[in-house]
Hints:
The protein is an alpha+beta fold. Helix content is 24%, strand content 27%.
Amino acid sequence: MTENRSGRLEGMGLAEQANGTQPAEELSNGDALKLDLYFWLQALVMALVLLIVVFTLVGRIIGVEGSSMLPTLHHGDLLLLQSIGYTPKNGDVVVLTKEFDMVSDPIVKRVIAVGGQTVEIDYEAGCVRVDGQILDEPYLNEAMYPPPYDSITSVTVPEGSVFVMGDNRNHSSDSRYVSLGVVDTRYVLGRALWIVLPAGRFGGIH
C-alpha cells in the first residue's frame, strides 16, 4: 500500500476483495430487498392469523344444500356466518342445527318472526302476516301455495324462539312443518352474511 491517498484507497479495495466482502452500496441494496421480503412475509402471516381468529371465534363457513332458499341462495353456495354475539332478527338468513324427521344436517332459512310475535299464513291471499302486518317479501322465488304436508298457519312464537321459512316457499320444509315448528334460538348456528363461493356469486346477503 502506497502513502498517497489514491494508493491507500486502492489498497483497501484489494483488501475487501481478498476478504470476500462486497461494497457498501451493494450490501445496502441486498439488505433492503431482504427487509422488503421480511415485511411482506410478516404481513401475510398476520393476515392468515387474523382470518383464522375471525373464522374460529366470530364466524364459520358452511355450504348450502338444496333449493329451499332460491333465488337468494343456490345449492353449493359457501356462506360466511356471524356466530358469536348474534341475536336473530326479522328478515335475517340463518343456519339452524335442529334435527327433524330424517334431516340431520344444518339447514338455511329466513327469520320471519321472533319471540312474542304472531305469524299468520294466508294461502288464499298468498301472504304472510306478522302481528297483523303483511310482510313485503321481494326475495320470494314465486307465489306461495299450500304445502303438501300438514302445516302450521297461525302461531305465536314463544320467547327465545324463531319462526323460519324458505324463500322458495313451495319447495321448503320450514317452521310451517309440524315436525320442525318454531325453533329455539339455541339451535341457531349463526346469521349468513356473505356468499364467499362460487366467485361469480360473491357478495353480501340481504
